[in-house]
Amino acid sequence: MTTKRYLITGGAGFIGSNYVSRLLSRGEEVKVFDNLSRGGAERNIQWLESTYGKKSFELIQADVRDDKTTREAAKDADVIVHLAAQVAVTTSVVDPRNDFEINALGTFNVLEGARVSGRNPIVIYASTNKVYGGMEEVDVVEKETRYEYGNLPFGVSEAEPLDFHSPYGCSKGAGDQYVRDYARIYDLPTVVMRQSCIYGPRQFGIEDQGWVAWFIIATVLNRPMTIYGDGKQVRDLLYVEDLLDGYDTAIQRIDQVSGKVFNLGGGISNTISVWKEFGPMLEQLAGHALPVKLGDWRPGDQKVYVSDIRKAKQVMDWAPKVSVQEGVQRLYQWVEQNKVLF
pTM higher than 0.85, yes or no? Predict the structure, then answer.
C-alpha cells in the first residue's frame, strides 16, 4: 500500500492525537498542525513523541487563522483531516468573534490551502450535529430516565433541515457548507462528518465540552460535578476508534463518497441519558454514590440528539463496533491509570 502524506489540523487534540497514533503505527507520513492552546495538547504531543520517536512526525505549531502558514502546511498533503476548532457552545456565546475566526475562517483557510496546492488532496472535515439546531419542531417524549424522539425511530438523518443554533453552530455550519461546496465548485474530494459525542482515551474533557470524559475524570479524582438541565438529555456516543475507522473508510472509498455528508455517531443502539442513565453506570464503576449539583439548562442544549447512521452503513459499510458499556469502561480504566495527567 502506498504511503500517504497526511496533514492533521488539531492533531494534538483528543481525536487528532488518536488518529496520528494510528497513522504513525502503519507508517504514514504525518504533519501535526496545532497551536497547542487546548489543555492536554502538549501532553498528547509528548505521548506521541515518547511512543513513536520525536522524528516520527512533523509538528507545526501554528494556527489555522494564519492563512499563509496553513497554505504552506497543505502544499504537499495527499490527505487533510481538519479537526482544529473552537469546540464549546458556551465559549462561542461569550466570544463569538474568536469562534467565527477559528471555525469558519480557519476552515476556509484549510480549503484554500488544499485548492491552491494543485494536488487535489482529500479533505475530511469534522463537523457537528449542532448544525441541525434545537430541532424544536421534532416531537420529543419524556420517559422515566430519558427523552426520546416521538417519530424518528432511527434518529436524525442527513436530510434533516439545517438550522444553525448558537455562534458555534453557525461557525461550524459555515465550515460544513464550504467543505461541501468545494467538492461541487472546485472538484476537491471532500467529505463532511457530522459527529456526535465522541469519547475515548486522551480526552481531557472539561465541563462545557467532552462531557463523558469530564464526568469520568471528575468521578475518579473526586471533583464536584454539575448537571445542567434534568439529566434526561439523550445523546448517542461513538468511541473514538470507531470514528477513526470512519475516516479511514472514507479515504479508501473517496471516489464513492466525495462531496457527501455523513452522520457519524453511535446511532440508536448506543444512546444514553447524560445523568439519569450514565450516573448509575459511573457509580457502579466507582463503587460509591456520586453527589452532583443541578444547574439551569444551557443555550442550544437539545433534549435528544441521536444520529441516524444508516447512510454511512449503506455507502461506506461502516458501523460502530464498541458499545457504550465497553467504551465507558475503557475510558474509565484509562483515566484511573493516568491520574497523573490531570
Answer: yes
